[in-house]
Amino acid sequence: MYRARLSLAFAALVALVCVQAAFVYWGTNRVNDYAQHSRLASDIQAELLDLSANKQRLRVWAMQRLMNTGVQPEQRDRLVDAMYTSAANLDDLARRDLALWTEMVHRENVRMPPEVPQLVSVTELLHDNIRAVEARLAQLVPLDQGTDFPALWAELTQVFDLARGRDLRELIKGAIARQRAAVPIARAATERGLNSLRVQAIGMAVVTLVLAVVLALNLKRRLQRPLDRLLQGTQALQAGALDHRVATGSKDEFDRVAQHFNAMAAELQQHRARADAARRELEDAVEARTQELSAAHQTLQHLDHRRRQLFADLGHELRTPATSIRGEAEIALRGGDRPAEEYRQALGRIVGGVDQLTRVIHDLLFTAKAEADQLVMHPSWMDLRHLLADVVDQAAALGAPHGVRVVWNTNDGADAGTAMPTGSVAVYADADRLRQALVIVLDNAVRYSERGSTVRIALQRGAGEGEKPEIEVVVRDEGIGIDADELPRVFERFLRGRRARDHRADGTGIGLSIAQSIVQRHQGRIAIASVPKQGTEVRIALPWMATPARRVAQSTGQEAGVAA
């Protein structure tokens, strides 16, 4: 039903457009005919005036020739050629005008003006007249004495003005007058045709517009209601109301669409019911399985973290004392013979490094059985100066192959407020663990310093006061430094900065985290400040517990006995 109405509406619009096109085509052809007639009348008038003017010039040339004034034959020939051209153009224009009027007479049933066929006959006479004039002027010679000039000029006048016994001068004048009168008439007819065409086009456009508006409003009214019902149905389905049904009863195409829509909604409602039941069952199964997998995942993550932690700590912890032992051995073997005492000292430091390596292995094995981040501590009273001197010697051995000097600033403290008292500095700490932390810091300072630079170590009072005084070990290098955005994360495990990776490819990025763990287990603090390309400063602050020097000596003696 609706498709039939729509087809009829489109057919009416197409028919109206075709009628409008036919009117426009007919009006355009008519106006074009009038315009062509106007142009032809104007062109014929121009050619007649040219022809008349050239004939008058030939008369003047003939007069001058008879008077022997020295005129040239070439001027005569140019004028004759111009007249031939004008005659040919007039003949073509006259025949075209006759054909146009003939077509207009048959198409519009109008009367042909009598001057139109007359002009065709005049053009035929012109050719004969021009040939006669050309032949007579070719015979023309200057007048002799006693020649009858009036009789000769009368003869020439007949040659110029007569053709087949008809007076061409009158014919041409009449044709010029008729064309002058025909030009404004043709222009007026063209204007009338244009106005008529404009009125017809506007009228047809208005009729087409009115009809299109009426049809559009009618179709919109018949289309709006079923579309609104379908739109309400789709919105209801989108909102999840699968029980919504579109009203039917129009008995057209939209009624069939509504029936299919209702069937689809019913089927979707059934599918949703089945899907909800299956989803609930699946959710219950997934929830139970997710809990199992989450527990397993957490267990695996914990085990994997402990495994990676163990291997990382194991590699780094074993590398540091092994490097120290190798450095001591290389120093002892380098150069010529040395005193036995120096070799004994070197071997003693090597034995100490081996002992440290053995203890590290035992500690890592013990840590692997418990938690990877729990360090086993064996604190005792010790002299921090003595430990620091030993660490500086090891660091010097590490820096020698790289051309880096390690210097201990014995004038501890920058001023009176931070100056250290003379003598031993007693701390209660695990000497091996503290040595490990200091070696890590010094090893990093050496590794990331340029050849020829210096690493400086100082011992000074810390910021703690009162019952909890502190002592600080300060390590300053002239190395590559650390970027500001990476400073807050330097103690994260496995993190190596951009500058560190560019400077040296080796390294795991776990050393500082181990050093931090050791210092924190000693109730201390470790902080890093750095300027890129200028150097890094590491401060290790430890609790400074005042104790008699005798107690430190006893502790040191016990350690020496164990070493022996």
List its traits.
alpha+beta; two-stranded antiparallel ribbon; 12 helices; five-stranded mixed β-sheet; elongated; 564 residues; Heat Shock Protein 90; single chain; 9 strands; disordered C terminus
Quick description:
With 564 residues, the protein is an alpha+beta fold. It is 69% helix and 8% strand.
What string gives the helices and strands in order?
HHHHEEHHHEHEEHEEHHEEH
Q: What is the domain tally?
A: 2
The class by helix and strand makeup works out as alpha+beta
- State the low-pLDDT regions, or none: 366-371, 558-564
- Mean of all residue-level pLDDT scores: 76
Number of helices: 12
Major β-sheet profile: 5 strands, mixed
What is the molecular shape? elongated
Pfam family, one: HisKA
Catalytic activity: ATP + protein L-histidine = ADP + protein N-phospho-L-histidine
Subcellular location: Membrane
EC number: 2.7.13.3
